[in-house]
């Protein structure tokens, strides 16, 4: 982790996302998108970490990321997802959802489709609507699902002007994030510590399943699904705890891991190497969790420099052992055998790390200290 | 009125090293543009002057800010200070016609004090230096002596490198700018940043490094070389040409190299001259030898200062002898170089053009006449160099005064002059903080507020808080102001607009980490209030639980109960069913939770449990009396069940509750039609209840009697 590049960009970064590489191609990640928040004028920007020919041969700018293009965004960028190679979906604090088009020929961004007032509050006793921030968005071509502070779930299609499906009052509290479980099922997390699974095949406004932490109602801020084992889900909460859930069984998390000191804003399994997990937090830290059992340096668990530390699983449920054969390393509960190695990736604590994304050997994260960090050697 | 001095958005500060020129009135950040950022809501297009400045003991002329759109001939103005801004509006007193109400002033102007905060490039400076600042505060106090000093010097260098990076970017932007006015503006920023770095570097040498005689001069030489850097371009230019010796700037280059004490490079240049011109080869060799043999302090050797002085004296005499003997008489270039190396003031002043500025003159003069100058003697040479260099033609400028104050080791004067000259608090706040860590400022206390370090940090942080986005940086600065930081943070943090819940969570986290319970409560209350207004009762309840705000929880619970009464079903069950211990926050919330539990038990057909819960809600006085009728009505279906659910004892209790309720009713005066109808329904309800209770009592007595009998 020597090669981590920081660039100050004069805007607080709320989201960072790699552009997906075409399936089956050998390309590595080279373009990412960012969204800003809390500025007088917010922007969605595209950056490249690719080489710029001879420009960088003197070594001065090598590894630095360069701005490709950007476009104004009305309101804070609350969430950002690549719809496909050329399209980006942005969720706004004004309640609108925008599909941006990237034109690689002349390096510009334009608005492709916009759903204004996708999220709104209805005031008691009056017909007027107030916009509500859209807090999360997830895409699975051609569908886009958004959630918001109004507790509403919207299902859009890229080519439809109106929402295909809306679940009003899906949640009594704020929905913070959403992810696809298996099409057409989605999973949402809310501000009273619940995971809800929704099945779009079912009519009605009730979730098909509710999972929650016991009693404490600690808000959950982020969720990610294991890329291969669709029943394994990781969430991050307000207290910085990482929870691993098995949605097939029980209504409680399989394990709770003490992690950050403040809100965990994002959690991501590595898409192609899911024994690795990445989390970032309001406390300004960015962690790499390594649960692979075949790590060669397993015997010497402490890295030089003392930056990493070992955490044992605090399992609160032993039921997971039932399906030993298909168990992923995240669900195993034997504390003596399975350890997770945690490495802190940022050299020194800064302000909140709001977002991160991993793709192949590359990681990008953005902070409230207006810096974007990029590394291209995650596993070196 | 609060008295505020120093940066007020406008100040004069010329480019580094420029001599003379129109400087007065030039504003730092925006060229000729006035700094008033006005938000107009429509109004007359005249203008009026506003004077910002201190009322007494002026350190400089108060700056004038022009506010466009204010009618000076007719209207008067009023204003109010904010933390980083000032509000100005017109007032129109009309004494004669009091009856005629003049519509309120159509325009309110917001005048921002710290305009540099709004520069996109300077934002990088603020953000990057924030990290360094926080790191510096964490330097352990135990570190003493050399390691501590090394740490502090490292921190100082980090700050400088951030300034330089910013300067370079600003320079790039200035070059790329198409609009000449824009380009000028960026260029002026570059010169300000360059001046900042120059001052900081000198302060680093004198106050942080505290270089003793000997090394002091080496540091000063580096300082001059770093800031008079045109020579490198010239060097590349000359060496790159076909025949360097014939280059028009050849001698200029050699002279500059000698002036900067870069004798090795100068000697190489001379050897080129010697190679191509046999007539002067001898002279060049002699001068080259003089250059080579000039004694310099090499760090790492055990050579004492006295030894150095002796050797140097010797060398000096040798140079003198060559000059006397007329060794270089046939080459005016070489002769003048030799004179420079003798520290001849007249010869040095002849090179005024190449020296650029008086501090370069000072350092060159020290190099060739007092190489072992003591820190304490610096100010004497500095003053005389300044006088000689300016020669009475022009008066010293702000930058000159600041550098002079530094040479005099008058830290407070340096900070004061910088505060006046620079348009933002960044520089003075960070420099003062660093010097304070060097334990150089302890004795100085201000007659207002806390000490100087804290005062400057507070000003800087307040400026950050006035910015819509940089407020997060300000928090850490307040944290490290022991006396007034906390109060300031409390006042500022409450004024952050909470546009989204996520932003609110960030603000809450800041407050919770600092145990600012009052602010936590108020933020949660704001959010709860917003949620209620948006008809999001679940969210409202969550926020009031988080704030432990019993009164508000009661209010929200009442809303839930009212909705239930209207609709006959509960909303937001996912929350109410999972209240847990939070239910105890307020009686009404407990009632809400328990009442919902009753419904659940009833739904699960656990009638006996449901019945005793329902009764206990009334007998324990948790249920509000206004709700008793609803509860009793809920008891009706239980009373009508086939099996007996309420025991005789419980039925008596229920009856007592019903009688309590009905007997306590006030007698109405003039009943209207609606009330009559309501009363009618009520009476029927009571009658039905009485009947059901009586029947249940009968069944219960029989059942209990028969059970006991059997």
Describe what you observe in this structure.
The complex is a heterodimer of chains A (380) and B (710). With 380 residues, chain A is an all-beta fold. Chain A has strands spanning 4-8, 13-18, 31-36, 42-48, 66-73, 77-82, 87-92, 97-103, 108-115, 120-122, 129-131, 134-140, 143-148, 153-157, 165-167, 175-180, 185-190, 194-199, 209-212, 220-225, 232-237, 242-246, 255-257, 264-269, 276-281, 286-290, 309-312, 314-315, 339-344, 353-359, 362-367, 371-375. In chain A, the strands form eight sheets. Chain A has a five-stranded antiparallel β-sheet with strand order 20-21-22-23-28, with no helix packed on it. In chain A, a hairpin with a 6-residue loop joins strand 24 and strand 25. The model of chain A is unreliable at 52-61 and 295-326 (pLDDT under 50). With 710 residues, chain B is mainly alpha-helical. Helix content of chain B is 61%, strand content 4%. In chain B, the strands form two sheets. In chain B, strands 3-4-5 form a three-stranded antiparallel β-sheet, with no helix packed on it. In chain B, strands 1-2 form a two-stranded antiparallel ribbon. In chain B, strand 3 and strand 4 (85-91) form a beta hairpin. Residues 1-56 of chain B have low confidence and may be disordered. The A-B interface holds A 8, 10-12, 37-40, 76, 78, 93, 121-124, 130, 132-133, 135, 149-151, 169, 171-174, 191-192, 194, 196, 210, 212, 215-217, 238, 262-263, 282, 348, 350-352, 368-371 and B 120-121, 123-124, 127-128, 130-131, 135, 468-469, 472-473, 499-503, 505-506, 509, 513, 533-539, 542, 545, 571-575, 578, 580-582. Chain A: WD repeats lie at residues 213-255, 257-299. Chain A: It is found in: Nucleus. Chain A: Keywords: Nucleus, Repeat, WD repeat. Chain A: InterPro entries: WD40/YVTN_repeat-like_dom_sf, WD40_repeat_CS, WD40_repeat_dom_sf, WD40_rpt. Chain A: Its main location: nucleus.
């Amino acid at each position: 982790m020597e090669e981590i590049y920081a660039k100050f960009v004069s805007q607080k970064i709320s989201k960072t996302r790699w552009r997906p590489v075409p399936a089956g191609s050998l390309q590595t990640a080279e373009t990412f998108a960012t969204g800003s928040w809390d500025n007088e004028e917010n922007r969605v920007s595209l950056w490249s970490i690719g080489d710029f020919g001879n420009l960088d041969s003197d070594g001065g700018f090598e590894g630095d990321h360069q701005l490709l293009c950007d476009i104004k965004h009305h309101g804070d960028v609350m969430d950002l997802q690549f719809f496909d190679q050329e399209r980006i979906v942005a969720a706004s604090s004004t309640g609108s959802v925008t599909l941006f088009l990237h034109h690689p020929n002349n390096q510009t961004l334009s608005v492709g489709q916009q759903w204004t007032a996708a999220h709104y509050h209805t005031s008691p006793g009056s017909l007027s609507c107030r916009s509500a921030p859209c807090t999360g968005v997830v895409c699975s071509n051609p569908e886009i699902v958004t959630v918001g502070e109004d507790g509403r779930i919207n299902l859009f299609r890229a080519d439809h002007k109106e929402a295909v499906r809306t679940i009003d009052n899906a949640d009594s509290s704020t929905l913070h994030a959403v992810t696809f479980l298996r099409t057409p099922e989605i999973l949402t997390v809310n501000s009273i510590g619940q995971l809800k699974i929704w099945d779009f095949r079912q009519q009605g406004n009730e979730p098909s399943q509710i999972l929650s932490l016991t009693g404490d109602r600690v808000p959950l801020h982020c969720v990610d699904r294991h890329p291969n084992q669709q029943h394994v889900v990781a969430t991050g909460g307000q207290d910085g705890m990482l929870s691993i859930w098995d949605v097939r069984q029980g209504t409680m998390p399989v394990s709770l891991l003490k992690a950050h000191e403040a809100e965990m804003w994002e959690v991501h399994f590595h898409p192609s190497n899911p024994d690795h997990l990445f989390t970032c937090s309001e406390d300004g830290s960015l962690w790499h969790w390594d649960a692979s059992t075949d790590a060669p340096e397993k015997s010497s668990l402490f890295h030089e420099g003392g930056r990493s530390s070992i955490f044992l699983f605090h399992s609160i449920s032993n039921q997971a052992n039932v399906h030993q054969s298909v168990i992923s390393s995240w669900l195993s509960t034997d504390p003596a055998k399975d350890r997770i190695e945690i490495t802190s990736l940022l050299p020194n604590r800064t302000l909140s790390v709001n977002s991160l994304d991993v793709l192949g050997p590359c990681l990008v994260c953005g902070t409230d200290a207006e810096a974007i960090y990029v590394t291209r050697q995650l596993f070196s | 009125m609060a008295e505020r001095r120093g940066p007020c958005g406008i100040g004069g500060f010329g480019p580094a090293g420029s001599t003379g020129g129109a400087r007065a009135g030039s504003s730092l950040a925006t060229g000729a543009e006035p700094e008033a950022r006005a938000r107009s809501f429509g109004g007359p297009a005249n203008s009026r002057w506003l004077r910002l400045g201190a009322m007494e003991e002026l350190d400089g002329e108060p700056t004038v800010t022009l506010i466009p759109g204010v009618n000076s001939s007719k209207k008067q103005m009023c204003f109010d200070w904010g933390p980083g801004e000032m509000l100005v509006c017109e007032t129109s007193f009309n004494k004669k016609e009091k009856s005629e109400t003049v519509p309120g002033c159509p325009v309110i102007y917001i005048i921002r004090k710290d305009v540099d905060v709004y520069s996109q490039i300077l934002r990088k400076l603020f953000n990057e230096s924030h990290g360094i600042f926080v790191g510096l505060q964490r330097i352990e106090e135990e570190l003493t002596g050399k390691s501590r000093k090394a740490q502090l010097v490292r921190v100082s260098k980090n700050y400088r490198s951030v300034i330089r990076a910013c300067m370079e970017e600003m320079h790039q932007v200035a070059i790329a700018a198409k609009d000449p006015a824009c380009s000028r503006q960026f260029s002026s920023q570059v010169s300000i940043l360059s001046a900042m770095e120059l001052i900081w570097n000198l302060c680093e040498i004198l106050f942080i490094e505290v270089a003793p005689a000997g090394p002091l001069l080496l540091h000063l030489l580096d300082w001059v070389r770093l800031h008079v850097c045109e020579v490198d371009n010239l060097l590349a230019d000359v060496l790159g040409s076909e025949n360097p010796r014939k280059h028009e700037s050849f001698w200029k280059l050699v002279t500059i190299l000698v002036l900067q004490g870069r004798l090795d490079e100068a000697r190489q240049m001379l050897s080129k001259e010697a190679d191509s011109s046999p007539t002067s080869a001898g002279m060049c060799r002699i001068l080259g030898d003089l250059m080579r043999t000039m004694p310099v302090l090499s760090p790492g050797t055990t050579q004492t200062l006295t030894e150095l002085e002796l050797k140097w004296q010797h060398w000096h005499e040798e140079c003198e002898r060559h000059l006397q003997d007329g060794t270089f008489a046939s080459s005016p270039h070489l002769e003048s170089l030799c004179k420079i190396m003798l520290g001849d003031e007249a010869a040095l002043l002849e090179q005024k053009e190449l020296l650029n500025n008086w501090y370069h003159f000072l350092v060159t003069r020290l190099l060739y006449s007092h190489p072992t100058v003591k820190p304490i003697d610096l100010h004497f040479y500095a003053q005389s160099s300044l006088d000689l260099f300016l020669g009475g033609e022009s008066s010293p400028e702000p930058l000159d005064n600041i550098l002079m104050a530094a040479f005099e080791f008058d830290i407070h004067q340096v900070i004061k002059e910088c505060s006046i000259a620079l348009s933002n608090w960044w520089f003075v706040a960070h420099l003062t903080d660093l010097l304070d860590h060097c334990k150089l400022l302890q004795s100085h206390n201000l007659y207002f507020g806390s000490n100087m370090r804290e005062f400057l940090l507070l000003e800087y942080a307040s400026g950050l808080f006035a910015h819509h986005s940089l407020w997060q940086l300000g928090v850490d600065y307040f944290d490290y102001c022991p006396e007034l930081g906390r109060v300031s943070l409390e006042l500022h943090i409450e004024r952050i607009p909470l546009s989204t819940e996520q932003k609110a969570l960030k603000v809450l986290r800041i407050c919770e980490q600092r145990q600012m319970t009052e602010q936590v409560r108020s933020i949660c209350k704001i959010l709860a209030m917003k949620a209620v207004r948006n008809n999001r009762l679940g969210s409202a309840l969550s926020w009031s639980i988080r704030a432990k705000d019993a009164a508000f929880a009661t209010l929200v619970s009442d809303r839930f109960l009212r909705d239930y009464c209207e609709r006959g079903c509960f909303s937001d069950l996912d929350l109410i069913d999972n209240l847990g211990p939070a239910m105890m926050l307020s009686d009404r919330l407990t009632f809400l939770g328990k009442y919902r539990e009753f419904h659940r038990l009833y739904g699960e057909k656990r009638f006996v449990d449901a019945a005793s819960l329902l009764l206990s809600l009334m007998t324990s006085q948790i249920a509000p009396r206004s709700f008793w009728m609803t509860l009793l009505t809920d008891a009706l279906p239980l009373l009508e069940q086939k099996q007996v659910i309420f025991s005789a004892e419980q039925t008596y209790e229920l009856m007592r509750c019903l009688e309590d309720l009905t007997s306590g009713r006030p007698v109405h005066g003039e009943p209207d039609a609606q009330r009559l109808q309501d009363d009618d329904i009520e009476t029927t309800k009571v009658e039905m209840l009485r009947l059901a209770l009586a029947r249940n009592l009968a069944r219960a007595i029989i059942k209990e009697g028969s059970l006991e009998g059997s």
